[in-house]
Specification:
Blueprint: E1 6-7, H1 23-39, H2 44-50, H3 56-62, E2 75-77, E3 82-90, E4 100-109, E5 114-120, E6 125-127, E7 133-135, H4 136-143, H5 145-156, E8 162-167, H6 168-176, H7 182-193, E9 197-198, H8 202-212, E10 221-222, E11 226-230, E12 233-236, H9 238-245, E13 248-250
Parallel strand pairs: 3-8, 5-10
Antiparallel strand pairs: 1-11, 2-13, 3-4, 4-5, 6-7, 8-9, 11-12
């Protein structure tokens, strides 16, 4: 039986026991700055070889998504152009049983020039490719990031545009480069980009940079979304989530 609706813990309220708050949001901006610096450097070709940009498995997973475009009573679907980036943090990039440590969805309204960062529960209820009910964390451990894309898109009814997978150490190292000069970015770029997995090719990462940078970390919306819980885990409220990120507009 479903329990009463609950909301995620607010992630926009600073907490003393969370020294890495805003790391992922900041890391996205800094990561794309690194790529911009590399465009003007002689290291670009070497970084392309050493990095995991354009990961084929993630690219294929994105093509398998199915979301509903049906009308929702009381709402109109926004006609703005959106980019949705799934940000996953793991204890190991490639291994027999990787653990998912955090998951967030960055939804950028390219038309309005705004962005929303939503933290997703690790026990979010999803349905795997075989039709079995499981959680996001369990699915990640069994099949990696690529196994999570289509099920999470179906659970949230948000089509995911891109995926970035990294370890907590990588996010922290990238965040520590915030405010660094171009030379520091170039010197560290090869090592850092080699520890990121993403479906994006260099040109797509640059496009994301051009979209996210003008918004600024401090201007990203951080929202509470409604959920319901039962023995299986946490079920996302698709309408609440869609409204929170701007995909649905109340009539």
């Amino acid at each position: 039986m479903l329990k009463k609706r609950e909301k995620f813990e607010r992630i926009d309220v600073p907490r003393d026991n969370n020294p890495y708050r805003n790391i992922i949001g900041g890391a996205v901006v800094v990561a794309v700055c690194i790529v911009v610096a590399l465009v003007c450097s002689t290291l670009w070709n070497r970084v392309q070889l050493e990095s995991h940009l354009g990961d084929h498995a993630l690219h294929s997973a994105l093509a398998q998504q199915k979301v509903s475009s049906d009308d929702v009573d009381g709402y109109t679907r926004s006609q703005d152009e959106f980019t949705s980036v799934l940000l996953l943090t793991t204890d190991q990039l490639r291994g027999d049983a990787p653990n998912l440590q955090s998951a967030s969805l960055l939804v950028v309204d390219k038309t309005a020039g705004s962005g929303t960062l939503v933290k997703l529960p690790l026990n979010t209820v999803v349905t795997d490719a075989a039709g079995n009910t499981t959680t996001l964390a369990e699915l990640f451990t069994k099949g990696g990031a690529e196994a999570c894309v289509a099920p999470l898109a179906a659970a949230s009814n948000i089509k995911i545009t891109h995926v970035i997978l990294a370890t907590q150490d990588t996010w922290e190292q990238i965040a520590n480069l915030s405010g660094s000069g171009a030379q520091a970015l170039v010197n560290n770029s090869g090592k850092l980009l080699s520890t990121l997995y993403t479906d994006m090719k260099p040109s797509q990462l640059l496009e994301l940079a051009e979209t996210v940078q003008p918004i600024g970390i401090e201007n990203l919306n951080r929202v509470d979304i409604e959920t319901s819980e039962d023995e299986a885990g946490t079920t996302l409220d698709q309408v609440s989530l869609g409204q929170s990120v701007g995909l649905l507009v109340r009539n």
